[in-house]
Amino acid sequence: MFMRKAMRHTFFAFVTLALSALTCVAQTCYTSGDMDAPTKTALDAAGKKYFDMVTHGDSAGLKQNAIPSLADSFGGIESAVKDNLTNLSGAQGTIRPGYELKVDGTAPMERAEFLCGVFNKNGQTANSAEFVISNLAPGSYAVVIADATGSKNPATVTFILQQMGTDWKVGGLYIKNGTVNGHDAKWFTEQAKAYKAKNQNHNAWFYFLEARDLTSPLSFMYTQASDSLYDEAATVKPADLPVAGTTVDLPGLAGKTYKLTAAFPLAVGNDFALVVKYQVADVSDTAKTFQENTEVMKAVLAKFPEFRDGFDSVVARAVEPSGKDYGTMLPVKQIK
Fold first, then answer.
1. Which of 166, 197, 258, 328 registers the highest number of CB atoms within 10 A of its CB?
2. Which of 18-22, 35-39, 78-82, 309-313 shows the lowest per-residue confidence on average (mean pLDDT)?
3. What DSSP assignment string belongs to 185-233?
4. Residues 201, 102: contact at Cβ < 8 Å?
5. 3-class DSSP state for residue 308?
């Protein structure tokens, strides 16, 4: 399944554990309808309580209610709450039916996969969900999703909770916009299908990815809707762009070949941009790297002219072996 990180997402992993020898473990998911009444009530109450803290900018309250490992490194949460306060201030939270996730055993699971609700021979149904989480320690967890109503822009606020004694503590916070430049998942899906009909399959691929990304509040949560978009995207999956860790050669206009390592859509301000990453030996000479970035952008649009129709801007990021990178962004109309 496609998974990528976007700048407009506020993402905080709730578990970072060193793997040890694994023992036999099992994972179980309970939907809201499967939970006992006290658990459901407790999760709904915790979701409303923590949502109110987010909308009031109460990072101190969230920290007091966080699991120890998160409370010890809380700067990212504080920044997320602050960055989203303008949009969420005054919003009301509508709590969706939650999920309780249980891991048995004595050691972390390398890959915990939770199948929640009813699945049929075709896979997911309207009310099912799947969560895939790495390195998850034994314990009881919950996913509580709140739709922000009355916010300036549509958004979801998702809490990963961990049961500690009788309390449900904050183990993770994910704040995600529901639109890109005012466009939702339905709009991106329609655009993707229109591009596919015009044989602009590269544009269609990226628009399906954007639609799928907007469909789920979490990158590790899969639903019938997101799976359907995965299947549609697979029909236009490109072989000449880097996908799922592949590297692709891009011919430059001056005879040089660039090795692309990633390509994905991204909202940058009011622009819908295409980001491409490529390999370089060194980025310390920024003037030279800027020129290389410009050449890569030209080469991308020369090979894929349809991107002039699908994107407002292109971002080229030169990445050296150390991981250090240098990026340049230009409007498509300025790239000649």
1. 258
2. 18-22
3. HHHHHHHHHHHHHTT-HHHHHHHHHHHHHHH-SSTTEE-HHHHHHHHHH
4. no
5. helix
pTM above 0.85, yes or no: yes
* Residue 57 region by backbone torsions, left for phi larger than 0, else alpha for psi between -120 and 50, else beta: left
Q: How far apart are CA 313 and CA 317, in angstroms?
A: 13
Alpha helices (runs of H) in the chain, residue ranges in sequence order: 37-55, 59-64, 68-71, 75-88, 185-197, 201-215, 224-234, 286-303, 307-310
Contacts of 223 (CB under 8 A, 6+ apart): 124, 128, 129, 130, 215, 216
Residues in the chain: 336
Cβ proximity of 81 and 57 under 8 Å: yes
Q: How many CA atoms lie within 13 A of 266 on its CB side?
A: 19
Handedness of CA 312, 85, 11, 224 (dihedral sign): negative
State which amino acid sits at residue 171: G
Single-letter code of the amino acid located at 181: N
Taking only the tens place, the pLDDT of each residue in 251-281 is 998 889 999 999 999 999 889 999 999 999 9
* CA-angle at 160, arms to 158 and 165, nearest 5°: 140
Model confidence over 121-177: pLDDT tens digits?
Answer: 989 999 999 999 999 999 999 999 999 999 999 999 999 999 999 999 999 999 999
Rounded percentage of the chain residues whose pLDDT exceeds 90: 88
Please, which residues have CB within 8 angstroms of residue 122's CB and are 6 or more apart in sequence? none
Cα separation values, 77 from 16, 82, 248, Å = 15, 9, 36
* Beta-carbon contacts of residue 231 (< 8 Å; ≥ 6 apart): none
